[in-house]
Every structure is written in structure tokens, then in C-alpha cells.
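fyi for ur records
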Amino acid sequence: MHCRFILILLLSFFATQLWAVDASVLWLPKKFNDVKPKLMVVAEKAESSDRCQHVVAGEMNLSKTTDDNYYFVITCRDESRSTYNISYQYPKVGDEIIVVNEQVPFVAAASNQDENLTDEEQEAAELLASCYQGFNAEGAGENMCRGSVDDARIEELCTEAKSFDAALVLCNKPLTSEEALAVCHEVLDDEAILFGQINVLHDLITAQNHSEEWAFRFHMPFDNVTRKGELIRYKADCRVTAEEDADMDTRIDIEAIPSMCTEAVEKEVKKMLSVTILTDEISEVVEEPYNFYMKIPFNAKDPVGRTLNYEADCNVDDNGRSSVDISPRK
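which gave:
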């Protein structure tokens, strides 16, 4: 009886491992890390289906994610080692997972004989199917190409090149500055969810020096209007690899800090008399990990006309919130 119980436990363990999804193939933007358990649930649901032999990737589609539902896309490999996508909606509140779409294998569709096709059209369809098959064979699309090779990209490459080898050459063309910047704009669009409406200052975008890890780096300034109606300028630091993977950090533009602090000080001293900010003596901005700091000296007068010397310590955090401490200046 004891041996039978152990055997049941072992079978349960191996059955669990059989359906386990590798968490490293699942990707989410950093700000959505807390959603990863839901993405894992969806990936496990996909891998437990009859057609899906193995989950090779999973991610959130931000453009299709709504206020009510997350939109997840799981890439599976089937018995023929062809990859295909299953799209799911997962409610932000609740557990009712909905299959939105399951992709029909393009190769099967393109390689079927169709009586309505001319010989030339049928030949083109077969060439396209053969090229497409090459990308799916032994993970060629994942391991041999620069950048993303989803179905739309594969069809685009195969249509233009008509063969796997020629398409592979197109797929591996070196990344251009324009292409890298386009990737950065896509990432910034995703980041904009945190800010609301933003205005990218295209004329002020500049290329930056970068480490060997990155192929391109850009500083991308943009303006954001807060709920209080305050205009805050940010700078996005975008780095892109040769494989089109991108990473981005956004901070308030350090060049905007002096004006933000000056405005904050002016609001703070409204009740003082004859305030004069000593602009020539304002300190340089000190940039720290989570905030910016600077000193703004100013003079004011007391009720009898005597000049009083003050100094304002101004702090601005990464969210654009400013605080001012005023003390007598020595």
C-alpha cells in the first residue's frame, strides 16, 4: 500500500513536469511583472491543448490590452514543428480566459492545390509555402534571423524573396538607424501608458554613444501634461541591440529642472514682499537615483523695508513632484 502511494505521487510529479512551461520564454514589460502569473496560466492552458506540443514564447500585446482585459499571445510548436499563435483575453478581474484567435498554419493553407489558381499562382503559392517551411524548420526563424520573425514578417520576407535562403539574407540585413529609432518609438508608445498623452519632440531626438552591448542609443525628449495641467519634459533613454531588442529608461529631463524649481519657489514665496531670485547664483542641478536637487538663493524685504537673504532647497522626484524648503541664507 505504501509503495502504491509513492508510485501515485511520482506519477503526479512527472505529469506536472510534463506540462510545465519554461518561465524564461514568457515576456512582459517591466511595469507588468505582477501580471506574470496570469500569463503563465494562459501558457499552461495553451500547452495542455491537443495541438500545442510545446510553448516557445508568450507575451502581452499592449496595443490590444484594454481597461478590462489583458491580451496575451502564446506561440506554440505543433507535431510538424511548425509554430503558430493563440491569442487570449484574460480579465483583469476574474478568471474567465477567452480564446480570441488560433492561427491556421500558413504552410498547410498555401501548399494545398486550388483549382481556381493559375499555374503561375500555384507555383508562387508553393514557393511561398516552401520558404515559410524553412523558417519553421528546427527553429530556423528563431535562431538564424535578426529581430522578430512572426508570421506577418515571414510572409513579407518570403513574398519578396521567393526562397528561404534569399529571405534569410533579407532578414539578416544590418539594422539601420531609422529601423532602430522606429523600434524605440514602439517602446515609447508602450511606456506612454504610464503617462497618458505625450508629445514626442522629434526635432530634439539625438543619437548617443553606447556600449558594445547595444547597436544604437537615442535620447528622446517628450512633453507630458499632468492632471494638474503642469507641463513636464521627460527624456527617454532608448537602447537597441542588433537583434532589435530594446530597453528604455525614462526620467525628467535634467534641463527642465531649473525652471520647475524656480516656479516651485515662486509659488512658495507668494506672501513675501519684493522677492528677487538671484538667477546668477542658482546652483547646478544634482542628479540622484530617484530625484534632482538644487539650491535657489533669493532676497525679500520685511514689512519695514529691510532686505532679508534666503535660500530655497528644491527637490524634484521622478514623477515631477517638487518640494521646497526655505531657510535664511548665510
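The first strand starts at residue 26 and ends at 27. thats all i got for now
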